[in-house]
Amino acid sequence: MASAPSSLCQMCVVLFLALSLGRCSVEQMTWKQDAVIKNAIFHQDLLFTMTDRLSAIDCGRRCSQTENCVSFTFTRHSSSRGACRGHSSSLTSQTPSSTEPGTEAYCFVGKKVWLDPAEQQLQSDWVRKKCATDLDCPADNATCFRNMVCLCLPGYYYSHKGDNCVPECSPADLQTGFMDYPSGLLNSHVLHYVPSGVSLLQCQRYCTRDAVCRAITFVRSSGMCMTHHVTPLDADDVHVCWFPDMTPHFYSQLTCA
């Protein structure tokens, strides 16, 4: 799919659409609503029209699945009905053909393919290496976690590119691999909570399919799952509670590019 320069859209509303690519990956599409173009209908480079029980998300999904679609308008007719029009060019370069109240314009910003957590492994000579002290873990900001294995300091992101540990990672650079901390518990800032019955992989999938999730806490014996948008590095915040030795809990944090 071709992409339109993000500068052509002034952000008002952002749509994140998760499209399944099969069993092991998901494609996240991002659209931004144009804050300038309002109540305008366009006919140039029209690819499709839809009218039914639609939302802006339905319209974005159809455009994402249509070859060459880079923009669309959505007209809300009622709380549950609307009209969608997809275009192969940026609407900012077109002259409106007519006006219709309640019409919003969106442009394509970008996409990212998220691999299933089971498919992205950490390729490193030192990660999970057996150790006795921090000196056995050569990377910056690495630690001998519980005097057993080399990991990044809790809250630091493992960087695939640098094979080291970094304190920050932008949303665009988050990967779907995880660094695991047996007995770790982050007991705050919960995005998603399942009291029982899920597997570790299912819990990690909840996180990778949430645009703001950074980490999970899991209990293997009960299948309890919590997802978080903070990490132990945020523990200076009085509302973030990090406990490194809380068996049977299990903390797992996303990695970085």
TrEMBL record:
InterPro entries attached to this UniProt entry: Pan_app (IPR003609)
Entry annotated with the keyword Cytoplasm: no
Composition bias type Low complexity, residue spans: 88-99
Keyword line: Signal
Signal peptide: 1-26
Keyword ATP-binding part of the UniProt annotation: no
Name of the protein this chain belongs to: Apple domain-containing protein
Organism annotation: Batillaria attramentaria
